[in-house]
Amino acid sequence: AMVRVRLLTWDVKDTLLRLRRPVGQSYAAAALQRGLRVRPEALGSAFREAYGAQSQRFPNYGRGQGLSSRQWWLDVVRQTFVLAGAEDGAALRELAEQLYRDYCGPHTWQELPGASDTLRRCRQRGFRMGVVSNFDGRLENILCRCNLRHHFDFVLTSEAAGVAKPDRGIFEEALRLGGVRPEQAAHVGDDYSRDYRAARAVGMHSFLLRTAGQGPQPEVPPEHVLPTLSHLLALVEK
């Protein structure tokens, strides 16, 4: 039999919370309120490009290079608009500040089906609970405002840890915070390499949330796959 799992760690984006609408749509709507017309599709692809370039140049929000995550994001937002054809200037700086704030709010995020209910039931069963997320310092605030923070003993972001998933260091820090050995912990996330494989590499158990329509995926034993979050308790207590 499996050593009893005592700690559950959770990814957040696309595991517990997801964006209510695509980035391009949110950015276009915010711009339009300031009289700036930019196509959502153009912003969507510009965002992917700007985010990708910034991540290459300053990994993990520039944490090791003296950049604040706030400045990191403000640069990504401005660059997104510039790539989509907007004129850089004071208006874009204000827009970037506004969007940085908007992405903290419950109007930007929605819960995945079964999220609060599953977290509540896991708490009731006595599991220790923690978040392990490649996110910046806003995550604590987002979880509070989406009414999920109270389920967790700790919230560990890549910005705070100084390393990002799939680096084993962030999982080791989570195990330290949870006060358990790897085989007493299980991680839940939606990304095969950053969540499922990375947690297993440290010796943790791991479950992969696989919502419909994700396309072809690497092979994972069916008993490690969650079609929805509500499937978790039955599998973790096997």
Automatic annotation (TrEMBL):
User: According to its record, what are the GO cellular component terms?
Assistant: nucleus
Source taxon at top rank: Eukaryota
Query: Which protein family is it in?
Result: Belongs to the HAD-like hydrolase superfamily.
Q: What is this protein called?
A: Haloacid dehalogenase-like hydrolase domain-containing protein 3
Organism of origin is: Xiphorhynchus elegans
Gene that encodes the chain:
Hdhd3
